[in-house]
Amino acid sequence: MRADMHFPLSEAVRGAYRKGQEDETLEPLVAASEAQIPIGRIRPDDAVIFYNIRGEREIELTRALTEDDFSEFPVDPKLNLAFATMIEYDRRLKTAVAFPPETQLADTLGDVIAAAGLRQVRITEAEKAVHVGFFLNGKKADPLPGEERIIVPTRKDVALFDEAPEMSIDQIAQTAVEKIRDPQCSVIIVNFPNVDVVGHIENEQAVIRAVEAVDRHLGQVLSEARTINLPALVTADHGTVEKWLYPDGAVDTGHTTSRVPFILIHPDKDLKLASAGELTDIAPTMLSLLGLAVPQVMTGRCLIDKPVGHPDAKKRLLLIILDGWGHNDNAEGNLIARARTPVMDELLKRHPWTTLDASGTAVGLPDGTVGNSEAGHLHIGAGRRIYSDRLKIDQAIAEGGFFSNPAFTGVMNTTKKRGKALHLMGIVSFFSSHGSIEHLFALMEMARRQGIKDLYIHGMLGRRGELPESGARYIRQVEEKCQSLGLGRVVSVIGRYWSMDREENWDRIEKTYRMLISGDGEKVPAESTHEHNS
Asked: Residue 22: inside a domain, yes or no?
């Protein structure tokens, strides 16, 4: 790479760091000409590929760019974009989908409970609504027969949850207690999201408060369960803050590869658990406790070492998911160990427990990669391994089929016929569960092969599982890739806080929309004066 090459957007991100900004909440940066005219804005009849995966945080921005009757904030009603997404974010969106979902999973934990005529309730707050519903049910959006979803609203009076680490946990716990008291509720599934949500923010004291709040409310819910001898399981979907530091001492706000605890609280004190397992074992174990047959498609195993004979045969069970609570015997850099957790400490002393694999191939992800809430809940409910979108996409790139994907070729052919620009937008990261920089690079290479002339890249940054100030390094890599291909330029960068929302914080999405369409944001002088599509 020549020494005189210019990398304007990555340099601008580093400048933002010096002003006290960080990747997650980075204010928009926009490439501009010498006359301060934004370069590479999305214009009518352009083409867009939103290359993120996962999908739940991508719906709102996609709606703003594609819906004819969008009304959450003022938009250009005549964009008429050729629009493709890497995976299906929502079946109601009018977009081409490169990797559509496979058939919805059958015979999940929820399906078996529903087929038995038992009532089940899922309780969490809005941050985790999609996980205890859509993902836990095998990617089925609508509630099952006899299923009730109680979603406590997420607080809107704080910008980030380190300002209120307790979140809405009081309401979640109280609702759980009410359902425990209702004998008609057979299966109660509770998700406490605090450790995961707050753990993504670099605020050690706030994380410790979140851990302690979860421990406290775990005790409250279990205390009620004990009054009626209701069997309970306590587990997690992945790890987070039990490994708070990288080897060099920098803070790691991402997920981890840690195993997670699995604790059995049961009236039969003679029950014992297997020495180890994985998240796919939870569904077979729960069904065994409920006296229900385990479907053959569930390759997970029951973790209990002998047949279960529940004394009152009422077929009731409580599952508590401590979102992000990993297990780590090493106290160094372990914020769970740093916190006061008398309830969890007592559970581990008095009840059978084991640990479960919750990352990598055990949850359908590439070997060695960290777990996440989507894969975690999907595998808790499925009772079998489900290969992730990321694995399928990586395989398609390796085998070459990615470069002839009809959703991508269709969009690229349309933009060539129209003589318009192609825009690639999404997370710029390697570790994010929302996507990979390698997927962006593959699309850039495909655009070159397809003869695209005007290619603009809009990056979203977020330090979850990344080293400090990694966003600038990734943007530099994309700028270098543009130069090596002789095609494309990075023209916008923004923190994912503003672009990847799922709580209808439309003011955040509008900020991203204005950046993409109008060029609102801090203007960054570009190297050349080429202003096509400006």
From this structure: yes
Q: Residues 267-284: pLDDT tens digits?
A: 998 999 999 999 999 999
Q: Is 85:65 a contact under the CB 8 Å cutoff?
A: no
515: its two tokens? 């950046």
Q: Cα dihedral angle (170, 174, 180, 181), rounded to 10 degrees?
A: 160
For 251, the token pair is 């803070």
pTM here is: 0.72
Find the length of the chain. Answer: 534
Claim to verify: residue 92 and residue 222 sit in the same structural domain: no
Domain with 251, as residue range(s), is 109-385
Residues 89 and 127 in one domain: no
Q: The CATH number of the domain where 239 resides is what?
A: 3.40.720.10
Q: What are 428-437's pLDDT values in tens digits? A: 987 777 889 9
Say how many domains are in the chain: 2
**Token duo for residue 367:** 């070997």
The dihedral built from the CA positions of residue 379, 384, 389 and 393, taken in this order, carries a sign that is positive
Taking all residues of the chain, what is their mean pLDDT, rounded to a whole number? 93
Residue 97 identity: V
The whole-angstrom separation of Cα 318 and Cα 233 is 6
